[in-house]
Amino acid sequence: MRHNKKFNHLSRTASHRAAMLSNMAVSLIMHKRITTTVAKAKALKKYVEPMITRSKEDTTNARRVVFSYLQDKQAITELFSTISAKVADRPGGYTRIIKTGNRASDNAPMCFIELVDFDENMAKTPKKTKRTRRSAKKTAAEAPVAETAEESVASVE
């Protein structure tokens, strides 16, 4: 029986799928955002999020476990230094998938997957804009200030 064995094989053998996900995970860790198909992005999300959780505690065993999946020393260093520091207080959901439309050649649904805390455009820092009102008093008050500044420059020369 095939109960509870739902897993997207991505039309690849097990070794090819493992190598592909490992390479994609390294690219995601190093570049913080990659463009791929939606099916691969969903598979990558399940592959890389447990590694990011594991990187929160920087132990030798955690590094060895993550290295067994990634096989890239620079990616391990990046993961355990910068990424783990940024996601230390986040309880999960380290990646975001944003769909970008279909690919022109074969109409495959495309998206980009990115690390959540590394996107400045979608950061949740509210911009405080101070609303001001234009009034006749303000423009009249600024005009003498500008004239005095010009007079002081003229007096120096």
What does this structure look like?
The protein is an alpha+beta fold and 157 residues long. The protein has a domain at 14-118: Ribosomal protein L17 (50s Ribosomal Protein L17, Chain: A), CATH 3.90.1030. Helix content is 52%, strand content 13%. The protein has five helices and three strands. It has helices spanning 14-31, 38-54, 60-70, 73-86, 136-156, and strands spanning 33-37, 95-102, 109-115. Strands 1-3-2 form a three-stranded antiparallel β-sheet. Strand 2 and strand 3 (109-115) form a beta hairpin. Helix 1 (14-31) packs across helix 4. The N and C termini lie far apart (94 Å). The model has no long low-confidence stretch (mean pLDDT 87).
Quick structural gist:
It is built from 5 helices and 3 strands, in the order αβαααββα.
Major sheet: 3 strands, antiparallel
- Look up the CATH topology of the domain at 14-118: 50s Ribosomal Protein L17, Chain: A
Helicity range: 40-55%
Ends distance: 94 Å
Taking all residues together, what is the mean pLDDT?
87
Secondary structure tally, helices? 5
Number of strands: 3
| Structural class by SSE content | alpha+beta
Low-confidence stretches: none
**Strand-and-helix sequence, N→C?**
HEHHHEEH
Percent of residues in beta strands? 5-15%
| CATH classification, class level of the domain at 14-118 | Alpha Beta
The shape is: extended
What is the CATH architecture term of the domain at 14-118? Alpha-Beta Complex
Strand order of the largest sheet: 1-3-2
Per CATH, the superfamily of the domain at 14-118 is Ribosomal protein L17
Please describe the structure with a list of short key phrases separated by commas or semicolons.
single chain; 157 residues; alpha+beta; 50s Ribosomal Protein L17, Chain: A; three-stranded antiparallel sheet; 5 helices
